[in-house]
Design goal:
The protein is an alpha+beta fold. It has a 6-stranded mixed beta sheet, covered by helices on one side. The chain has a two-stranded antiparallel sheet with strand order 7-8.
Length: 359
Amino acid sequence: MTANPTGFEPVFCTIVPPHVLDTLARSQDPALAAPARRTLQRDAFERTQRRLTTVVGAPSAAAPKEAAADKPHRTIHDAKHRTELPGRKVRGEGDKPGKDATVNRAYAGLGATFELYQKSYERNSIDGGGLPLNATVHYGEDYGNAFWNGEQMVFGDGDGEIFLDFTIPVDVIGHELTHGVVQYTANLTYFGQPGALNESLADVFGSMIKQYTLGQTAAEADWLIGAGLLAPRVTGKALRSMKEPGTAYDDDVLGKDPQPADMDHFVRTGRDNGGVHINSGIPNRAFFLVADALGGHSWERAGQIWYAVLTGGELAQDASFTDFAKLTVAAARATYGDGDELKAVVDAWSTVKVPATDG
């Protein structure tokens, strides 16, 4: 990934929004505040490292010569609750499962992500060229996040109070790896509306990876991001809801899910890179509405439209919601003509109040 010509900082993508960790860090309960503060500190350090790596360049991770185009090349490392990356290798491609469930979940999640992209979109790993999929588990002390740092996946174990093990939801794994796909394709600026599109695309494909793994149709899916991640004490079901943005949690400690469901409630803020984790609820809901209207498996018609826009070369790095919406309309028409698919796309963007046509 090259330096961003727009001047915004290079992408370091976490699954838990900064505003959630900020809230926890202010808690009067040290069992909640201390892990959140450590997580924020680690995130700040890793974000700086990502910026420096982008400036000086990172070594490329080429696909191994023996790797087949339809097979992943996975390596899982164990940080042993330290923060040096990547840590000790504990499982390679083709190795049998071990006793560590976290390692096994990470390995399976990387494989599920590779499989969806390969079988549904003919994409060979996240870069399209067989990039090895590397992950580190058991990162840090009670680390409450998971991230893609431009080169690999990293998972914390959570604090057990608010967050559980970050390898539990397969959509979290798919979400973070999809940031890699975005990095190698549209490379959307991680700020404001293009940043929210970046987050939304990660949610869209993360959710489809979960649905693909479970064999679910759009009607059967829960459309939640991070279900199973919140500890029992939290009043909430997930980090985000694509179906009903703003309803994922309403907790005494975390507060209420701030995601808007349409442009009338778009949040203007200087925090979280201009609200990238908040306003992503708008395009998230648009995708849900398209998939729901078309029925069947979301990775088929709805997913094909979104993937065509992401990889088609016309999506600018600084694209707005309207830019993206218009491209989905064009992709639907080009692929399916003036049928149900086009109507579903136009209706969805109209519902979330994003202009998608010139009429």
